[in-house]
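Teaching note: in complex prediction, the entire set of molecules is handled at once rather than each chain in isolation. The prompt given to students was simply: 'Predict the structure of this complex.' The entities are:
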Amino acid sequence: MPKISESQAWWRGYQNETEGLRLYPGTCDKSCSDRPQRRGYRSGGACNIIMDAAPTATGPIKEAERRITRVPLVLNRRNFSWLTERISGVVEQPAPRWWWVAFTITASAATFGLFCIGYQISTGVGTWGNQIPVGWAWDITNFVFWIGIGHDLAPVPNNWAIWQNFRSALMWDVFAVSTYFTVSVLFWYTGLVPDLATLRDRATTKVRKFLFGVFACGWRGSNRNWRHYEMAYLLLAGLSTPLVLSVHSVVSFDFATTLVPTWHTTIFPPYFVAGAIFGGFAMVLTLLLPCRAMFKLQDVITPQHIDKMAKIILLTGSFVGYAYTMEFFLAWYSGNSYERFAFWNRVFGPYWWYWWFGMLFCNCLSPQLFWFRWCRYNILVVFFVAMCVNAGMWFERFIIIAGGLARDFLPSSWRIYHPTWVDIWTYIGTLGIFTSLFLLFVRFLPMIAMSEVKTAVPEADPHYTTPPGIQSVSPGGKERTR
Amino acid sequence: MMKTPFGHTVYAMGAEYPSAAALYEAAKRVRDAGFRRWDVYSPFPIHGMDEAMGLGKSWLSGWVLFGGVSGLLTAALVEFGPSWGLYRLDVHGKPWNFWTVPAFFPIMFELTVLFGAFASFFAWLGMNGLPRWYHPMFNWERFSRVTNDGFFLAIEARDPRFTETGVRELLEQTGGQHITIVHED
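The expected output is the structure of the full assembly:
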């Protein structure tokens, strides 16, 4: 028998144990045995029980036990301090070269984008390609696109410096978006505090000690603190969830309360919510998959997580496909000739390829690959679909916004929208700002909530008893006595 | 006020435990011994620890309810106040009577959530006495592992049942390691 590393032995045993769960091959091998600096890890503690248990798993009780064996949330029996080391290491070690290359590109795009925004503000909106009847174009498309992904802030529409009109959809939008943003920041920071304390306790330089110290608020992991923390975190999560629904519903009201064909429809709120979750998950995967590979986080972000996200994309992508179909049906069923024309125009008009490529191929067809297990477990396929969805959701917003306007009620006023260089570079700039901020986040703050992941380790259970022959894995090969 | 032979004020006696399970069992013993001023420290929240320490439900939720209700009332005030008399805004011929109420729902909802979230955040800080950048536990060198993989228990000197020998014995019996006096300063 060829000599195999312990981790490989564990991995094979694990695969036998959870037959049918075809996690993609090589995940474990790449993450735990290839690199010399990590040779010392005892990564395969679990092989003992699993290898021993497999041949005896014949009786009905053993069979039942085998069936309820769940895929662990943290693979390879990584222990608490491994999680701390690996996740904090991303922040503490010098930035890898690829990070500098990526950051140079995104920061340049961001700088040019900021220049375009400055130029547009100082010169006027005439720098955009918006022309009546297409009064809303890339500006609003980008707004909805980024709202769908995360958060953004809208200008306050004010009725000539008098009391606000609280019955206007634009006003609702301001409240919805700023609430969404504020609650997201509070939720994010609350979750970050225990991990900032981890970085504070590991900090070696004065500046780091001071900054992490200040923002960690003196967190000391006391259970009297955890008690309130958990309640606060639970309630913030509960409050954020309906906000996802409300913010996208309200954004859709901006359109639905007008009379423009293809905008004036009651299907918009659920349609936009599904689209936003769809696009949001795709963007998360777009960022997560490269980070997972670059920072060797395969044991924490497991194939199981990616599989579940792929299923959400399949589900919401199907919602979106259904909404597209229903729009066409309603356009026909309404008997309204403008509505019928607008949808005919969407498929065969000047923006035909946006529809065929963006809406049909990217949004409706590509997620259907996730019906197949091997697609959900193949990183390249998942990444390809996520990129398709990112592009498709942008095209969808554009075709909804500009497609309806460019061919409105009066043929004499029809006009095709052409973006100017300011439009194009502002959009590229927003992508640059977003990715630059993300890269900075990854470098300066823990990208995975360590204190939360630790609760998913079996030893976190207060009723956990160590099975004989098991040792958890510490960094540097040190075994902890239990 | 207890002093060490070197003149430091004693804050507590602390012990380290090898695992979450050991800490959980120790917490139950300390609770049953009748101590009031004590705490356990862990890198993550341990499920069931509140019961093991004899703590009830966190009533932080009460603050969140208060925040949510005040958000709802604030929204109602800024919307209904002007519309029903103070400053009637005639835009797009939209009504300002009873039938305008549904148009106010989105902002009522948003402010309810916003104020609730702020209440949750500030109640969390307030009820925990945070931010508090100095704490005697930080004087204990081993304690820096608490945010990594250390599990600690400390019984404070101001607890009426605190005696140096009694507490040390209890911590030893529950399997505590590295038992030590933690200084106030």
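Point out the following to students. DSSP finds 18 helices and no strands in chain A. The longest helix of chain A spans residues 169-202.
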